[in-house]
Amino acid sequence: KLLQALIVDEKVSYGDLLVGDKNALLVAARVLGYGKDYEFNYGGEEEVIDLSQLKEKDVDWSKFKGGKNSFEFELPASGKNITFKLLTHTDEKKVEQELKGLAKIHKDNVPELTTRLKYMITSVDGDSDSKTVRDFVDKELLAIDSRAIRKAISDLQPDVDLKFYPPNGPEEGVDIPIGINFLYPDARI
User: Fold this and answer.
1) Neighbouring-strand partners of residue 45
2) How would you list the strands of the sheet with 81-84, edge to edge?
3) Which tens digit of pLDDT belongs to each residue from 92-139?
4) How much is the pTM?
5) For the segment 155-177, what is each residue's pLDDT rounded down to a tens digit?
6) Is 144 exposed, middle or buried (0-12, 13-18, 19+ CB in 10 A)?
7) Nearest to residue 115, comparing CAs of 139, 136, 92, 99?
């Protein structure tokens, strides 16, 4: 509800936001509401980071042709040509609903990855029929191709780099803990 309330431009739909858009809104709301300094505990030490210094993830914007959320990709192993999209908030809600239904059927093994891929892949060799896409993901998609698709999606996904780099921490950084205290620092939970 908070993020929906922050959107004041009628041309922008909350359902069309990507994960990175929502993260940027969340950080901006935190900075505007409580300031740029964010305190949290890491490894038993109090850490303070300046949220206004967070960087955007490097993205090759030239791949967003015509501002469209549609990308062509040739699978390295099978050689098939697919198109895919980055999931919007609306897509994420559909995936969640499908996963809830699948959890009732597959109690021990919910196929989250393949379900997500069925929503991300929009065509296979020019065929955009959803049954074709679903059958491809279920029956033909090789693990090596699945991994390549996920890497391509990760490389394209705009986002805020929500990591901090403690002095003796891992080189790749540590995720900034975002919980109730992020938007309600006085809660101290």
Assistant:
1) 42
2) 71-74, 81-84, 121-124
3) 999 999 988 888 887 777 688 999 999 999 999 999 999 999 999 999
4) 0.79
5) 999 999 999 888 888 888 899 98
6) exposed
7) 99
